[in-house]
Design a protein that fits this description.
F-box-assoc_dom_typ3, mainly beta, F-box-assoc_interact_dom, elongated, 9 strands, four-stranded antiparallel beta sheet
Length: 104
């Protein structure tokens, strides 16, 4: 069984929370906190968003939108809060030009 260490402010101590996800390793992007959940992108080749429910103390996964066949090394994702909800900005490098295309 895998466990994560979670610090609880109310008790001022660390406790373990079991999880069954493949990994909790995130990308170098910061985590986003929205409505009692903490979200982060999983790994370098991002395939899903990991989130932690602060009330239930559970880890879960969210599949990310399809990258439409782009080379994953050219696709860049960033989590953000938009109007109080989780949002993801996706940009794709165009290696033939010095521009980027963005979509939401």
């Amino acid at each position: 069984m895998k466990v994560a260490w979670v610090y609880t402010l109310s008790s001022g101590s660390w406790k373990t929370v079991p999880f069954t996800l493949p990994t909790l390793t995130g990308s170098s992007e910061p985590q986003i906190s929205v409505n009692g959940f903490v979200y982060w992108l999983a790994g370098r080749k991002v395939e899903y968003v990991i989130y932690f429910d602060l009330i239930k103390e559970e880890f879960k996964l969210i599949d990310i939108p399809d990258d439409h066949g782009f080379d994953h090394q050219l696709v860049h994702r960033k989590l953000m809060v938009l109007r109080g909800s989780l949002a993801m900005m996706v940009s794709v490098e165009d290696r033939t030009k010095d521009t980027e295309y963005g979509c939401s």
